[in-house]
Amino acid sequence: MDILVILKMAPDVVEELEIDPGGTRLDLETTRMILSESDDHALEEALLLKERHGGKVTVLAIDAAEVDDALWTALAKGADRAIKVTGLDEPITTRAAAQVIGKTCQEGPGILPVDMILTGTQAIDDIDGLMAPLVSFHLGMPCLSILTAIRPDPGKRCATALREFASGIRGEFQITLPAVLGVQSAEKPPRYVPVAKVRAAMKTARIETVDAPALEEAAPLISVKTMRKPEVAGKAIMLEGPPEAVASELCGILAGRGLL
């Protein structure tokens, strides 16, 4: 099985986030970036499939702060090839990123064909989960997303995948390969790799770089007017007593503020 995994860097929300002077986006100069959690699960699922079925795993990421750390770590975990797309000056939307990845896959040296392309379903700064369907659109491949398990049948050129729905319901789907698959969570937690192994990978492997293809300009679907950090307001009001008294007091507070 030849698998391509798309990786994305996202803000580390453990750190204090700052807004840039323009007031419309995060200040990425002061924001620590980490690998998106669901992309880490996509990588783990790819490595599990490689261990079961053989083949190779390639990781692909658009250049961003700390992206080299994520790529070296992927190589240390067991990925066979790492590619970084360079030449983009500013952070781009998911639509634009999918276009870049699609063109890079088609034009980059030896990236395609693969049996499947895996990506995470969401990131902390992109909760729409559109990367997998958008990449599949640009590559003309079928797509399934929000998956928790993938069972390929290389001989039949298809895969069976488990998809999560609300209320804990799961559906089993069969899809023709090659396909783009969005991973919600891997079958096992992402593996830990010691720093020593990452350093060893830095000595024996390499990160390839490819220039980003030209983008087709498109008007943004959403325009951010301004961003603000949460403001400290008044203290919380704790309501105590029997349910009827609490409900009456709550209604009085809401009515007093014009909400009822």
The residue ranges in which pLDDT falls below 50 over 5 or more consecutive positions are: none
- Number of domains in the coordinates? 1
What is the averaged pLDDT score?
91
Specify the CATH architecture.
3-Layer(aba) Sandwich
Instruction: Report the strand count.
Output: 11
Element pattern in H and E: EEEHEHEHEHEEEEHEH
> Mind describing the biggest β-sheet?
9 strands, mixed
Strand order of the largest sheet: 9-8-7-10-6-1-4-5-11
Structural class: alpha/beta
Q: State the shape.
A: globular
C-alpha termini separation: 60 Å
Rg, Å, rounded: 22 Å
Reported by name, the CATH topology is Rossmann fold
User: Number of helical segments?
Assistant: 6
Characterise the protein shown here.
This protein is α/β, with parallel strands linked by helices and 260 residues long. It has one domain: 3-Layer(aba) Sandwich (Rossmann fold). Helix content is 29%, strand content 25%. It is built from 6 helices and 11 strands. The strands form 2 sheets. It has a 9-stranded mixed sheet, sandwiched between helices. Helix 3 runs parallel beside helix 4. The mean pLDDT is 91.
